[in-house]
Predict the 3D structure of the following.
Amino acid sequence: MNDMSRTESALDTQTNKITARGVQVHYGANHALRDVNVDILDKTVTAFIGPSGCGKSTFLRCLNRMNDTITGCRVSGEIKMDGRDIYDARIDPVQLRAKVGMVFQKPNPFPKSIYENVAYGPKIHGLTTNKAEMDEIVEKSLRRAALWNEAKDRLDSPGTGLSGGQQQRLCIARAIATSPEVLLMDEPCSALDPIATAQIEELIDELRSQFSVVIVTHSMQQAARVSQKTAFFHLGNLVEYDATATIFSNPKDPRTESYITGRIG
Amino acid sequence: MSEVSGDWATPHAKANLSRRRRSELLLKGAGFGAISVAFLMLFILLSSLISTGWQAFTQTHVAVDFVVSADLVKPEKIEGGNYRVIVKEAMAAAVPGAAGPGAEGLKPKELTGILSDAAQFRLRDLVVADPGLIGQTVTMVVPVSDPYDQLNKGLIDRATPEANRRLSDAQIAAFDVLVAEGRVTKPFNWAILGNADSRFPELAGLRGALVGSFYALLTCFVLAFPIGIGAAIYLEEFAPKNRTSDFIEININNLAAVPSVVFGLLALAVFLGWFGMPRSAPFVGGLTLALMTLPTIIIATRGALKAVPPSIREAALGVGASKQQVVIHHVLPLAMPGVMTGAIIGLARALGEAAPLLLIGMNAFITEAASTPFDAATSLPTQILIWADSTERGFVSRTSAAVLVLLGFLLIMNAIAIFLRSKYERRW
């Protein structure tokens, strides 16, 4: 916990990466998210916590417009990244998702080789056509995802042949291969054992130096361990958003307190 | 603990348990019975086909010495030689009038009737190819005509009274002479695969039908496969889900259930009637079969696309792939085994389909294999119908043999489908 003080002091100097104002999400007739206002800081780990169905994953998926692919889903309000409205008609979600990478709950590598998994994003975005450069991107991404040492001798073997924790790190490598500015993680450790979880958490902490990381988690311990800022969602509302230490030691809202002490959720 | 075991043994619990066991036994028994009946039917079908059909895979031949005299075949007019007389003389020499007891009263015409009609033409072709044979004696193995083939295969009972038999005692005696001289053999009947249709069973073969079916299936595949996959991809991945797409979906499912003869009527009216396409052409047959196979392929492809886990789509979308890239790079390759399986099963159905082809005239009597998809041809199922309708006894076993050939092809296609599915299918 001694690094908590360090991160707290660093908070003030950081700038907003994403600002969300009055975000509402409807799934058909279901009002899933009500009036969410959040500033997500650059080079910070922000955790979204809350009971199941509270809208935290929904909000996360608003940030890279993955909700666009769900029929019947409507998003209103304003979400700006670096001052640009990401729901602007002139913004193509395809480009947005290169800047806002995503890691999913269940490891979902493509049933292709490890190399192709990582190289896929850079390839479709045309980041390089040069084989040597691509090799470099793949190596760098795998190194940052702490998978290089395990995978370097088997880059051509299928990504689906890796263990669960390795697969999730491969998915992280795939997400960061396009050099995104924000990395969204939707319960990235829920399918992993404690050892793999610890590796991923360590990785998240390292990734913070380059990216703004937003992580949805069901584990409050995990939120406390990895994040600097925490947002608590409940029944589609953003109840409280503050520094992680404040949320866990001195929550303002009684609902937050009930949740983190285990009385609701 | 003793109370618990007491509970287990109460009359109510016992009765309940035995009732449950009884109904389970009943269900198992019914299932086993159903499978047994199905296997029995299959066994009866196959054994009846094989027991009548196997005879068609051999054909009785007889070796005859033909004397190609220069009197009958003029070197300057080889094609116009009198080969009929050569055959007649050869048969008269092979079965000398006095040789067999009872064969004396046989007319020369009846003697040549032992041989297939093709004998004189084969001899002519042989001499045309090699004029050096003129003036020599040529020993050629020729198929015997159908009644003698039946006799040699034991399908004509010698004990039947002569009046009820297709061969007279004298004819049988003459054939027995040939057998006694060791001239008669019964090799594999290559004609059934290598020849086209013929009025004479001993010459009839499936080549025309095989070629016709091949062209029809090729046309069907080339059309139905890409169109079916394209339609399925659009409906499954791109089409908005609304009333129109629901309507289209319902109608595709309905089309798959439309009797095939209706597609034949449609083809007759549209392809032949309006567009004036050639009759009996495998290309038109293929178009018709494509209409019929299309819904099957669309439904199979949609099923295969649906079966690709959403996590793969999300993964691809998450790294910024466009919808088209998600489909082409990830979803379609994963769905391909299912698509191929569906397509092959659809084609197998098309291969066995006779009704629509009857309506466009692919049941004509055609003695030459088609050389292009636009020539007249038959298909395997329509050829089976033609042969089943023929009166010559030899076509009975040939019909069964043709069914066996068709079943063989269907079996191969289904085996390919199973192989593709087990080899390339991925599980999550």
